Amino acid sequence: MKALVTGANGFIGEHLVRALLKHGDVVRAMVRRESAGEPLKALGAEVVLGDVTQPESLPPAVAGVDVVLHLAGLVKALDSEELFKINEGGARNVAQACAGEATPPVLVLVSSLAAAGPALDGHARTESDPAEPVSNYGRSKRAGEIAALEYSGEVPLTIVRPAAVFGEGDLNTLPMFHSVARHGVYAAPGLKHRKVSLVHADDLAEALWLAAGKGQRAKHRQNGAEGCYFVAADRDPEYDELGRLIGDAVGRRHILVVHAPDWLVRGAGAASEWVARLRGRPTIFNLDKMREASAGSWLCSSERIRNELGFHVERPLSDRIRQTAAWYASHGML
After folding, report:
1. CATH code 3.40.50.720 region(s) in the chain
2. Which of 48, 107, 141, 251 has its CA 20 to 30 A from that of 88?
3. Residue 262 region, left (φ>0) first, then alpha (ψ -120 to 50), else beta?
4. Spatial separation of the C-alpha atoms in residues 334 and 65, rounded to whole Å
5. Among this protein's residues, is 239 annotated catalytic?
6. CA-closest candidate to residue 144, choices 186, 199, 83
7. From the candidates 137, 186, 229, 328, which is the catalytic residue?
8. Segment 154-208, tens digit of pLDDT
C-alpha cells in the first residue's frame, strides 16, 4: 500500500516508517521542515512538507495514498490551548483532507490510553468502556477522536489507543532510565501499588500496520468498541517491578524504589511547570502529566486487536526494556 505518515520525523514516526518499508509499502513522510526529512529520505521514504495546523498544506500530501497514519501531535505544551490546537484541530484537518479525496484513504488515528482514562477499579480498560480522561492531554486526544469521527461517514476510520509508548529515540522516558542508571533510584507515583500498561514503539508500529490493512472501521459518531483498538505489551508491571526491570537493563542489581504521595507528585509537577514557563520550554514533567500519574493504575487490554487482527508483540517487555536501555547507552545518554 501507499501510506502517508504525519509526524514522521518524531519518535514513533521513525519506527513506523521503518516498519512500513520493511513490509514493502511505499511511504510518504510528512514533515514541517525539509531538514527534518533527510533521515527519512535516507531510509527510502518520499518526503513532503505539510503542517496539520495549516489545512491548505494537507491535500497535496494526502493525494493518491491508500492510507493515512496520523501521528502528528503534542504530548507536552505550555498551555492547554496548544494541546487542543494540535491534537484536536490537527486530527480534524487531516480527516477533512482525506474526505476531500475522490476515493478517501483509510485514516488510522493514533490516539492514547490517556483519551480513555485510568483503569476502572483496577481493571484494564477495554474499547467498550466510556472515555473518562483526567488530564488536558487526555481530553485533547479524546477531542481529536471525536473530531475525526465527524468524518467517519465519508472516511474509513480506525482509532488506535496505545498504552505508554517507549523505545529507542524516546527522550520522554529517558529520565527514568537515567535516574536508575546514575543513582540507583526509581520514583513510583502514589503510596499504593499501581500497575501500568506499556508498549514498545516497534510493536505499536506493527499494530498500526495491521489496523491500516484490516482493522474495523468506526461508525459515524459512535462511542463503542467498533473501529477502536488498545495496544499494550505482554504484561502490565507494577511500578516497583518496572523499576527493577529498568535496573536489570542498565546493570543495577539493587535499586531503591521511592513511593511519592500523590500530593507531592502533583506539587513537583506544578513546580517543574512553573520553571518551564519561565524558560519558555515545555517539559513532560508538568502538572497535567502528574495528574495522570496520580490518578491510579493505567491499564488497557489488547485482547481485541489480538483476536481480530492477529497482533502479538515480537519480544517480551523485559527484552524491549533492555533494547531501549542499550540504545540510550550507545548514544551516551546513561
Report:
1. 2-170+197-232+299-314
2. 48
3. alpha
4. 41
5. no
6. 83
7. 137
8. 999 999 999 999 999 999 999 999 999 999 999 999 988 899 999 999 999 999 9
Distance CA 124, CA 127 (A): 10
**Listed residue (93, 230, 220) closest to 156, CA to CA:** 220
322 backbone dihedrals φ, ψ, rounded to 5°:
-65, -40
Distance CA 6, CA 161 (A): 16
Give the Cα separation of 42 and 27 in Å (integer): 12
CATH tag, 2-170+197-232+299-314: 3.40.50.720
Using CA atoms, how far apart are residues 126 and 147, in angstroms rounded to an integer?
21
Helix (H, G, I), strand (E, B) or coil at 227: coil
User: What counts of helices (H) and strands (E) characterise the chain?
Assistant: 13, 11
pTM exceeds 0.90: yes
